[in-house]
Amino acid sequence: MGKTVYAHQIMHDPEIPDTIVRTSTLPEELGRIEYLLSDKTGTLTQNEMELKKLHLGTMSYGIDSMDEVAHQLATALGESKTNGRRDMSSRVKDVALALGLCHNVTPVVDESDGSITYQASSPDEVAIVRFTESIGLTLSTRDRTSITLRTTAGATLSYEVLEIFPFTSESKRMGIVVRDRQTGEIAFYQKGADVVMARIVAYNDWLEEECGNMAREGLRTLVMARKRLSEETWRDFEEAYRDARVSLGDRNATCARVIADFLEHDLELLGVTGVEDKLQDDVKMTIELLRNAGIKIWMLTGDKIETATCIAISTKLVSRGQYIHQIAKLKSPAQARDELEFLQSKLDCCLVIDGESLQLCIEHFRQDFIELSTQLSAVVACRCSPTQKADVARLIRAHTKKRVCCIGDGGNDVSMIQAADVGVGIVGKEGRQASLAADFSVNQFSYLTKLLVWHGRNSYKRSAKLAQFVIHRGLIISVIQAVFSSVFYFSPIAIYQGWLMVGYATAYTMLPVFSLVLDRDVNEDVALLYPELYKELTKGRSLSYKTFFTWLMISLYQGASHSPVSRSERPADALSFAGGAIMLLSLVLFESEFLNIVSISFSALVVNELAMVAVEITTWHLAMVVSEVLTLALYVVSILFLPEYFDLSFVSSPTFLSKVALIVAISVFPLFVIKYLKSKLAPTAYAKLRDF
């Protein structure tokens, strides 16, 4: 029930709207996160792409010179007079056609005003199609077998779609084979990540350098290539590909081999695009706050190492002046060992490592790598596959035994999210796969601040206090029964029976104890202003063996103080079983009649629980006061309906009230004094800031 309340508070927080708690058993885990693994695109960034740069090998166009690109395209399409080199115009046309044809975008026409909107699985695709539209080549219609483009002059270019090779996170590329219905020419267009396309395109001397330059500007690079096919080549491929798709063996591998043999080699490199993805609001502030809270942040992305480094700096994942150590393109275990040995002397740096090197380190030096990397304040892993992301999350969990939180927004992040202790999904433009697979769903990365530092803190602290009170509530009555039985020579007699036991487990103690779910040790502003307070939670001191044995001793002490001993028993026997002044006090106070023994001890037990809740409350809430008063009133009224347990004439006497008050005072007052002295002599960090 307590966790349900925490989930309700999270989902109804106006500062993090539309947050969904899909797993109500985990809210307190938010208060003990030590490692945060984050995707980049759509998680740290807005996933709203805009094409900023186009490079054709000998010419580069920036965002300010796209009018020249439009002019060159119009020249190549015969829509304007040639004022420049014909060669450049044809190259612009080639790359524009590649961008306009090689995608999975579907145009949707609004019948009311004729406007066109684009639908696609990735915002990258939409950004590129919008770019081609801005330079004069608009996608007008698209279905499974054809694509139609419209120029600014109103002319249409119609193409038949012969085959599509969709993008996957493993292949990192997409291809399409089309036939120009006007000329009959067949062409294979392909686009993808530079690390993949570099092996497929024909030799060139500028691709790697230019992709590196764009990545250093924080742009996502996409390489465009083309291969013209003859009718004979296409028929041979079509036949081989058809056989591969019906093969009984490893079908995917067979299909990939056929595509590589016939299509994916010696492609003509057309150009490289640079797409910008702006950071989400408050990402810098959020990352800086989480770092101050002692959370070590890892960014796992599929981007180039230069792009990932640029984003790490711009998001403040790398602190000012911090050394960045890059590990890339490792080919042998010896190289990996040398890098790890160097890293041992740079534990204050930010590590940036590519997927190939990461895999090499994990395969050959798993223990050494994870031991070193988990000591670093920030790690950036680029060119990571979804499988690698999940493997990293599992490795950190297994090695550190600490709580790991993973956050992402796309389907490629699902495996990582599910491998974490706590998974957070962002509802993004790539769909709801991550959101539906996660334990918590949020709208943007900055919501993590409130989710972890405030709601995580409250959920963990409250759950710890609630769990210990439930333990104490059961232990104290067990101790009373044990001492009672031992004093009466271990006779099998239950001191509290029937409705008393039912009432103690429910109506007499439930509301005050449950009201602790509203307690808080600091207010929200202090928790967010001093994220360093979060570090204390990760140590697990609020609920540990130490706190358990502390509450065990409290239960033994209070149980003994409430244990009834009749005057007919020998004092020596009583002292031998319970010992100390508390049991001696019981000898003096309790009446010889069994009925009075039950009424005094049970009343003291109930009032003791109410008093203990009051002592443990840090910040009073109206519901807490109501629960205390209502429970006490309910107990007093219920006495009238339980004459078999309470002698009404005795219960209403001042003697009864004084004895109950004295027992409760002896039981609770020492604990109150200890708590007060501790708060004055050795206050906790949050106690010093409580009244801020």
Automatic annotation (TrEMBL):
A Pfam short name: PhoLip_ATPase_C
Keywords: ATP-binding, Lipid transport, Magnesium, Membrane, Metal-binding, Nucleotide-binding, Translocase, Transmembrane, Transmembrane helix, Transport
Domain P-type ATPase C-terminal: 436-684
Membrane-protein topology: Multi-pass membrane protein
GO molecular function: ATP binding; ATP hydrolysis activity; ATPase-coupled intramembrane lipid transporter activity; magnesium ion binding
Binding site for Mg(2+): 39, 41, 409, 413
Binding site for ATP: 39-41, 125, 167, 191, 220, 301-303, 383, 389, 412-413
UniProt-annotated location(s): Endosome membrane; Membrane
Protein name: Phospholipid-transporting ATPase
Taxonomic path: Eukaryota, Fungi, Dikarya, Basidiomycota, Pucciniomycotina
